[in-house]
Amino acid sequence: MIKQAIIPLAGLGTRLLPLTSVLPKELLPINGKPNLEYILEECLEAGVRQFIFIISKEKISIKKYFFNDSFYKKVIKKKKDKRIIEEFRKIKKYQKMIKFVYQNKPKGTGDAVLRCEKFIKNKFFLMLLPDDLIIKKNCTKEMIKLHNKTKGSIIATKRVDKKTVSRWGILSIRNKNKNYFQINDVIEKPSIKKAPSNYAIIGRYILPSNIFDEIKKLKPGQGGEIHITDAIRNLILNGSNFFGNIFRGKYLDCGTINGYIQSSIQIFRGN
């Protein structure tokens, strides 16, 4: 069973400035609830019971959001508001499940994941990127179901317009079924001519624990960062089984101003 999820939260969120100058992007409200809570709820419904948050000293407010008991107790003592009491109960439930790891310099997703190695107890674990919300269907639950069927690693994917492939990590595929396929390779932001497909990576992964050893072999790439996709690619090319899960939910990009606004509107309307 997949019980642990790594959630990288240390990024500065510059694409969402000026909003993120005062509030982490993961705490920006979408229909009255922080973006991050949608991710947690998706995971809880799928059976995940431990979350490893990767934060930086600039994102310490994320820790405060989940561990601010004195404030809640003070407010509840004065108001006895049922909604606030229920919110506090929910936060207390999360407290038992969350561990924090620090990444104070932007060294990439590979470096972030490697910092969590000592906490991972099983052969496989989840990694979720909070910029990507998937509504209507539980993508994490679908991925775990596919993992149980294939016994392999899983990457969430969706088809994108061929004209936009250079914006995405693109998968080379084989043995396509209705809702999944086997992955031959991962190509980061290829040109239209060189793209092996138009199936793009979305920020949901089930990864094997031996990826830590693969990350340790990597040298910093573009921008001096270590990228998790390089480690994934090396594992695939060395024979590890990775499958693309063509999820059935609706994808929302919360990582830009326009995407954040559109996501808020669609969730509010229930679209």
CATH homology-level superfamily = Spore Coat Polysaccharide Biosynthesis Protein SpsA, Chain A
Work out the helicity level: 25-40%
Order of helices and strands, N to C? Answer: EEEHEHHHEHEEHEEEEHHEEH
The helix tally amounts to: 9
- Overall pLDDT level: 94
Strand order of the largest sheet: 5-4-1-6-11-8-12-10-9
Task: Walk me through what this model shows.
The protein has a single domain (4-269), classed as Spore Coat Polysaccharide Biosynthesis Protein SpsA, Chain A (Alpha-Beta Complex), CATH 3.90.550.10. The chain is built from nine helices and 13 strands. The chain has helices at 35-45, 60-66, 69-79, 82-95, 108-114, 139-150, 211-217, 228-237, 257-269, and strands spanning 4-8, 29-30, 33-34, 50-55, 98-102, 124-128, 132-135, 153-159, 169-174, 180-188, 199-208, 242-246, 250-253. The strands form three sheets. A nine-stranded mixed beta sheet has the order 5-4-1-6-11-8-12-10-9, sandwiched between helices. A hairpin with a 5-residue loop joins strand 9 and strand 10. Helix 3 packs antiparallel against helix 4 and helix 5 (108-114) packs across helix 8. The longest helix is centred in the first third of the chain and has 14 residues, at 82-95.
